UniProtKB/TrEMBL annotation:
It holds the Pfam family ABC_tran. Gene3D superfamilies: P-loop containing nucleotide triphosphate hydrolases. InterPro entries: AAA+_ATPase, ABC_Ni/Peptide_Import, ABC_transporter-like_ATP-bd, ABC_transporter-like_CS, Oligopep_ABC_C, P-loop_NTPase. Residues 9-263, 302-552 form the ABC transporter domain. GO terms for molecular function: ATP binding. This is ABC transporter ATP-binding protein. Belongs to the ABC transporter superfamily.
Amino acid sequence: MLDQPIAQIKELRVEFQTKDGPVVGVENVSFDVNPGETVCIVGESGSGKSVSSLSLMRLVEFGGGEIAGGRLIFDRRSGGNMDLADADQDLMKQIRGNEIGMIFQEPMTALNPVFTVGRQLTEGLRVHKGLSKAAAEARAIELLREVRIPEPERRMSQFPHELSGGMRQRVVIAMAMACEPRLLIADEPTTALDVTIQAEILALMDRLKRETGTAVMFITHDMAVVAQMADRVVVMFRGNKVEEGSVTEIFENPTHDYTKALLAAVPKLGEMRGKAYPEPMKLLGVDQGELLPIPGTEAPLLKVKGLTTRFPVKGGFFRRTIANVHAVEDVSFTLNKGQTLSLVGESGCGKSSAGRSILRLVEPIAGEIDLDGVDIMKLDQSGLRDARLDMQMIFQDPFASLNPKMKLEEQVAEPMRNYGLTTGSERSDRVAHLFDRVELPRSFMRRYPHELSGGQRQRIAIARALALNPKLIIADEAVSALDVSVQAQVLNLMMELQAELGLSFLFISHDMAVVERVSHHVGVMYLGRIVEMGPRARVFENPQHPYTQALMKAVPIADPHRRKSEKDLNFKPIPSPIHGLDYDPAPSEYNEVEPGHYVLTTDSGY
């Protein structure tokens, strides 16, 4: 029977034992996966989407879960259905990797750091397919070619740490595809990757699916990726399936309130076309009053000129400096009061180093930084401490920037205590006021960081940054780790605060749709330099530098009618930012293509 589903999950229930009794991870979930189709399972953290896939592989038991009910029917290659919920672990060993392949979210944890790529690729082929060493190696090289890895013969003898993130993820895909499984489960396979690499990997998976006829179960929280990949969509919420339908039905005519809210919270590229200034997003089911654009002012607050930061590479017997990482190279820009300037680019382009250099958390080797008339580069330690009253930072991972042993009330009060700005009763009033500002209940003041969700922790980080009434906030990937709906709320909060308090944001991100939403001006970074800079509308609607154009092309759009094909994507690999001590880079020179819109004319390497 050709029309029979490859996998059928029927009334699955998974429980986890905790010291407070059993917790239900997935409750009564049913769906099918047919041959040659991609089913996307969407939901936010904790919705049970990963648990359902780990149950099908019977891996959930190794994570403390148990399948408490339901059937997992799988159509074996040899013909005949079987219920995987009853299979013993020896039989599962034959099925895993051979008939069901799995791609995990974090490629570094899926690969063994002590074995070469070649050894890890050939292992499955020799165990499941009984190939000889030479035949397995030949097939492995062929697989690396299929996933578009350059110089596959050389890669076979390399170790995982010698490859970039995108390369590692390709190796994991090659391993999953090695035995031509009937079903491929991909659990957030592109979350940790840059936009251009993500676009290539999605196109690659789509091509492999068409060529091999494998069925794909794709788990993600990114609605733009769903629009790009899915044939059918299953929406999960709190352990239950709330909606299922074809990809066009879900995007054009969602019926469940949760699906509607999820789609409303996704910033879409091109949504801000024709709008001069950023404005908060409309969220479903939230009364936001009237959404007013945020014009800001034209008065400069921060002027950066010729900022250069390099990190030494040490080596040899005496640990001498043998080369430098050119992290930030001759960067200049101006940020106005009450406005947002975004720096975008892929990992390793120097955007975070630029943000940290401005606060002098890392020391630049050259450049001028003028914050409201104060020359930050000339200050000594005590002067710098005073200057930091005016500039604060919000980091990407709120858990790492909060102290796990301190109550939240003390953490928000700490900056005020350090600077001796307020007395005891004033301070607690101000803390309570800050909790109101970031829309957290005052009862949370007595809690600890581990008792909050990611989005709530990020709000605490924002409250702490606001405690000293700064003029400038540097937000380094401040929303990239959050779920879609939480991300939308935090972005709106930042924009409301900007409108009310006249804050200036230096917003560092790799998410183009978010940047389009919040920015007045945008600078695109590549290999430590700003390659294009200008008003948001001009950079997004008329990108001039080839790297900006490639970046725009790669962004998936949350609309199933606007899918990217593999021929749209031809990205050049990013060269190394490490240069010898004798390397003398040319200064950055710009051409003004429109008023205020500058494009780098110096060779940027792209």
